[in-house]
Amino acid sequence: MTLERNGIRLNNPLHYRLLIFFVLSALYFLACLHRISPTVIARDLMSAFGADATALGVMSSAYFYLYAAVQPPVGVLSDTWGPRAVVTLFAAIACCGVLLFGLAPGMTVATVGRALIGIGVGGVFVPALKLFSNWYRSQEFAGMTGLFLAVGNAGNLAASLPLTYLVLWLGWRMSHVAISVATLVLIAVSWLVLRDRPEDKGWPPLVQSDGTNASAAAQVPAGMSAGKRLGIVFRQPNFWMVSLSTFFFGGPTLTFQGLWAVPYLMDVHAFSRVQAGGMLMLLPLGFVIGAPTFGLLADRLPVGRKSVLLAALSLSLVCWGVFLFSGGRPHPYFIGPCFLIIGACGGGSLSLYMTITKELFPPWLTGTAIGLMNPAAFFSTALFQPFSGYLMDIVGAVGDAYPLAAYQNVFIAIFVFMVLGLMTVIPLRLPHVR
Predict the structure, then answer these.
(1) How would residue 391 be classed by pLDDT, with cut points 50, 70 and 90?
(2) What residues make up the domain containing 157?
(3) In this structure, what CATH number is given to the domain that contains residue 145?
(4) Does residue 209 belong to any structural domain of this protein?
(5) What's the pTM value of the predicted model, to 2 decimals?
């Protein structure tokens, strides 16, 4: 008997893998929502806890420190336990963190809750890519990774104007309680739906375009300990180039989007809270557009993945230059297009960073390699958030707002990091992929 849901035949592996994709995307949606949600409730948190910009940066950065710290063990566990078990366990940790954050009586407990959220949602992205490597062919991987990033990063869209309205309706505390309930539902769905490989559903293993058996290629060689896995990855120079570029490029963008974008628009351009939330939506909207677009271009254009990556990084640098060289206050007409392009280039570069890392190593090292590279942007964010708060506090607030000079300090730091991110990836040498 054929089981169908919304036109998807669940006895067909090509259809079932779409169901897996949507379940993982829903979890990643929540991970991205939490990533930048503090920018919407920044003033609420300052008021509730009597915090300044530096304290808020430290609290927000707890997510990124812990998210980054769990990536290597999550990668190894994805290769050993299997991604289904990892996703379910870590989603449960995230659920507890969201609830604790919503009920926090003070900044210390809120920081602990934020840290638990970082740990929990840190167990989604790498296991998802491990699952995709078992369910999708190599020539489909960049496109599917980009699409996954796009669907998941709709959470960044939700963390702008929609979350603004939710907070105005329920308050920031009850909004997080509601999100914890939604997370609990997704945990149950994940355990019921996810399977590590087609064979777990009784289907034949995936066959790559070159005729190789994906499951056989993913078999770990005898005697391959965790230490040997790490050694193989760390001895690859291209791995370090990709990781450093991700570090310099990812942290400043995530910091601005997740912490200072709304205050900047309100303090410097006199936007209302709703107007700022609406403008903020252009960053994740660009990400949603750019992630699959750049991924599909990299899969199809003969110029190679590196050329597409360099184009994305260069275009983003130009847009940050608009903010820097206008003295921190470009004409409002330029803000929307720059936000959209920066978001698109961020999504495109991330999908390419992940795909390039996967292709540098054999399939049985996919989880470990991506788990070791993925923390780079989040360690950078964890460092850049309090650092940017410090740069702003050097100038100091005027009442409850920061002046233009404070934000210009941040734009200078962002631009320098972007230049370093572009320069780091230029020497990259990639293997030929069919």
Answers:
(1) very high
(2) 8-196+226-425
(3) 1.20.1250.20
(4) no
(5) 0.71
